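Sequence in, structure out.
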Amino acid sequence: MTSVLAKTLRLLDRLLPKGGFRHSVAVLAGGTAMGQVVGAAAAPILTRLYTPADFGLLTVFTSLLGILSVVASLRLEWAIPLPQDDEEAVTILALALIALVMMTGVVGLVALFAGSWILEAVNASGLEAYLWLFPLGVLAIGGYQVMNYWAIRMKAFPRIAGTKLRQAFAVVTVQIASGLAGFIPIGLLAGQVCGQAVGTTRLAGLLSSRDMQTLRRVRRTTLRAALSRYRHFPLVSTGSSLLNITGIRVPVLMLAAFYGPVVAGLYGLGNRVVATPIQFVSKSISQVYFSELSGMRSERPEAMITLFLGLTRRLFFMGVG
């Protein structure tokens, strides 16, 4: 599998346009698109191993996990690309990881004491036996998000694209193998969690030995100073991101609550096909844009405005198309 992934990435690098912003976006979008192709190719097999009700539980699981993962590290990962000094960036990385561990514990407690009530409210009691997967899922997604933003800081877009392919292969491998072995529906859920975790260690490999030494030297005083400077991320960005993702995910949960997991599962399968092209293009552009913008902080504001207006104009025409 490793050799297949390596060959695919080399092929993408030869085919995609070279130079600056467009090349970075193309690399990320290309890797994500190949991952979606893997998922689409596996769909006919998965739909014969699992029932629509199983996919309904998966849809509810991913919707709840999507809401929880937004607050996984209190949006401190967004601040990682911003500092010009690597030591300060490592301090923020440590802050984000600490927040992730704390939020994982909070999700675990909520799952333990209120999980059954929440699942009953959304008509997904079938997930009650798998409540332990929620804190694991938050930890997996949050860990990948944190290391992904470190990779964005390093402008390691080919490596990020590679992890997208690895995630897709991991998801379908676990889901198909579990389905064949009769582990239903946990195979669908576990595959999703495993897929999110894959790639985290590879992105963590971007941390140099100097970064690791800095990480070990982090003290409470430096953590407090960094948290004070970047407090708007947990105080403002977390709330706005949570509101945004809730608006997207709640309709899915309402479908499950009012019409049952089968309808939610069919909706989830259809939504995956319809929304995928928009998601992989917009997410790829946003990550590269964030990286470029972070590197332009020392330049004149006019340069940042020019990049913003040019990208917005192109996205508008792309969206109309």
